[in-house]
Amino acid sequence: MKDLTPSKVTPSKAARFWDRIATRYARQPIADEAAYQKKLEVTREYLRPDMEVLEIGCGTGSTAILHAPYVKHIRAIDISSKMIEIAQAKADAQGITNVSFEQSAIDALSLPDLTLDAVLALSLLHLLENREEVIARVYRALKPGGIFVTSTACLGDTILKYIKLIVPIGKFLGLMPQVEVFTTKKLEGDLIDAGFRIDYQWQPGKNKAVFIVAKKAE
User: Domains in the chain, ordered, with CATH?
Assistant: First the structure.
């Protein structure tokens, strides 16, 4: 049988892209600090000390580390091994012990039904080709009353008329990852179709990412 241990698995093209920019990404300041702080604040209104949380696409771990004091445990995954290395180093330096960082794609992750209290997918859904499938998996994994927190670039809302041409060219040249183009209305529909109720929605400005807290019925 072929050995498929993590050390033998060939990274995907997307993983290689994020590996390549991980160090530079970690050094970049947050583009909109005020909006980021508000998203943290709103999310924390839903968090409890007994919660089991999953963060999909955790990047360099900053958000997971900031939320760690408010929950029991966070399992934080990312497809980039370099991002995970940086995230783990941050957690170690700050003495954070209730966040488990691991390299994984959501498709490869075991998600038993009704086991999670909250799932975070920040700056991620627009990078997934199977967005609807992932949303459905998250819904099944959440306990009744569980929340799905997303911040998503809905590029279908933008007035950039050539966006559908720019994105594939950027991907082909290796200058940007796969990016899916859809509207806020489509994202809302995807969440509702999966069974969620949108409990909170906010957009800090025109052409900014849409922040949503979707809730599973209790």
Answer: 13-215 (3.40.50.150)
